[in-house]
Structures are given as C-alpha cells and as structure tokens.
C-alpha cells in the first residue's frame, strides 16, 4: 500500500521526505526552546549586561542537554522496541512462528503492543498446526476414498456380468411357464429385484468412477424442462402435479446438460416419493448475481431435523428401497460445476432444494479448452 502511494506521489510530481521519529519528537520542543532563547537574547543583548550573557549561555546549554537526554530516553523506551518488533515481524514473514518480543513485560502501551504481538504469533502458530493436521487428515481420507473407489468399480463390474446372466435365465423361465402358473408372480418379483440391483450397481459405478464433465454453453431452461417432462411420466399414476416456472431472462449457462439433467431428476424423484396423497412440486429457475438458480420444492412429508445433516452422505437413506447415492451424486455433480446445493425442510410441510450454478465456472473453461 505504501509503495503504491509512493508511486502515485512520484507520478504526480510530489516528493515525500522520510523524517526520523526522533526528529519528529524533538523538533517541536527544540523549536519552542529556541524561540524562547532568541527572545531572551534580544531582550538582554540590548542591555549589554555580561551577567545576562552568562545566563543565556547557561540556558542554551541546558536546552541542549534537555534535548540530548530526551533523545536518549526516547531511543531507549521507543526506538529499541520498534527495531526489535520490525526484526520479529520479518522473522514471522519468513515462516518462523516461534518468535516473541522481550518488551512484552513492560507495564505501558509499548508493553501492551508486545503482548498483543506475542498473542497474535501464538494464535498464528496454533492455526498453522490445525491447518497441517486437517491437511494430513484430508490427504489420508482422499487416499482411503480412492482405494474404496477402485474396489467399488471392480466390484460393480464383477456383479454386473453374472447379474446379466441371471436376468437372461429368468427371462427364459418366464417365457416357458404356463400362463396359469403361480410362479409367474415370483418371476416378476425377481425381475424387479434384478432391476433394482442393476440400478444400485450403476449408481455405485458412477460414484466410484465419475465421467469427466462435458461442459457446453447452453440453455438451462431446456435442460430443466427435459428433466421435468421425464419426472411427470414417472408420476402419472399418482395424484401429483409438477409445475415448471422458467426464467426467460436467464442467460446461457456453462453446464453439462446430461449431468445436470441427472441432478434434477434425482431431486424430482425424491420429491415424488416424499409426496403423500395429493402432492405438488414446484420447479423454478432464477438468476441471482453471478449464478443461475434452480429451486425444487414440494409439500411432502419433509425430512426430520436429525437426518438433514446426513442426506448428502453416500449410502445414507431413510427410504426402504433407496440406494442412498442419489443426493450424493447430485452434490458431487453440482460441486464439479463450481456450484453448490442447499436444502431446507420442515417436517410435515415439505422440502426445498436450491441449486446454484455459476454462469462461467472455472471448470467449464478448462473443459472447453480440453
């Protein structure tokens, strides 16, 4: 900041002179003493009295002595602590957070300054240690999750192959059974369970090995509309209405339309499952500052407060037939777009999910360049 001010002054033709603090402290006193001596000298010289000359000399010597003592006292009380403080600040800037100043024991304002400096350095040291601890924890967790991801991907691959064979056998058995056979109901249940297992494996594979974003500049209204149309098909057999309110003024957004479509579909399907009896789901697009906003709200049963902090955790579900991966995938996709997803819910009155997507996320620029 000081360098910028100095450059501005130089460009304006203004030169600043650095004056030492000792001179700043002594000059007013010396000026007053000098004026007094000059007046006294003029008054006494006119009388041509030798004794008065001796008094003037003595007064001048006393003034010089007072200034000298004042400079020494100021140097001892202020300059030395300031020099030490500058040295310690330079050491802190170099990364040494074990420094302290010695004048913190003084019982004056300079001592207060030293104690505050020591407390600040101690707090910086504690914060650095905490950051280092959290960094090590995060690195260990990242390695653990990477290992689990590889295991999950391999497991999903190994399950899919025999599952496809089982599905083929069940299909053959179903065709060969007589129309009146009671086993047909069992075959239908087995098909549904195979479909459910396949969906779980697909979500697990998507979680373990997410595909890279294919970000393009596009109309978010269209992306959301497609998800709403598909969700309406899923809700045909239920007394549920899904209303969409577009934002005609919404500018195009850098996003992966397929993955954002998946996010919206997950939120809508959850809203459908949470609706009991005659339900209403509202989807609204907005623009706030530098973000495009998608709001999905329902009047369903809501989420219990004790479950709300955990709904984005993988495999956490309160539904008997859920995989617990939908909201986890949704949040990961939104965060990869450098956005965020927020949720509020009131038990018995429904839930509201708000998705924020920046118009020009850094990730989108990287993806486009690739």
Descriptive overview:
61% of the residues lie in helices and 12% in strands. The chain has 370 residues and is α+β, with helices and mostly antiparallel strands. It folds into 3 domains: 15-124, no CATH class; 142-208; 216-369, Heat Shock Protein 90, CATH 3.30.565. The strands form 2 sheets. A 5-stranded mixed β-sheet has the order 2-4-5-7-6, with helices on one face. Strands 1-3 form a two-stranded antiparallel sheet. The longest helix has 68 residues, at 109-176. The radius of gyration is 39 Å and the shape is elongated.
Q: What is the average per-residue confidence, as pLDDT, rounded to a whole number?
A: 76
| Reported CATH architecture of the largest domain | 2-Layer Sandwich
Termini separation comes to: 39 Å
Percent of residues in beta strands? Answer: 5-15%
Q: Could you name the CATH topology of the largest domain?
A: Heat Shock Protein 90
* CATH superfamily caption of the largest domain: Histidine kinase-like ATPase, C-terminal domain
Q: Helix proportion of residues, in percent?
A: 55-70%
Q: What form results from the Cα inertia axes?
A: elongated
Précis, in short:
The protein is an alpha+beta fold and 370 residues long.
Task: Provide keyphrases for this structure.
370 residues; alpha+beta; Heat Shock Protein 90; 3 domains; five-stranded mixed sheet; two-stranded antiparallel ribbon; 9 helices; 7 strands; 12% strand
Protein topology:
Elements: H1 2-11, H2 21-45, H3 50-93, H4 109-176, H5 183-208, E1 216-218, H6 220-234, E2 240-245, E3 253-255, H7 257-274, E4 279-288, E5 291-298, H8 326-336, E6 340-346, E7 350-358, H9 362-369
Parallel strand pairs: 2-4
Antiparallel strand pairs: 1-3, 4-5, 5-7, 6-7
Helix pairs in contact: 2-3, 4-5, 6-7, 7-8
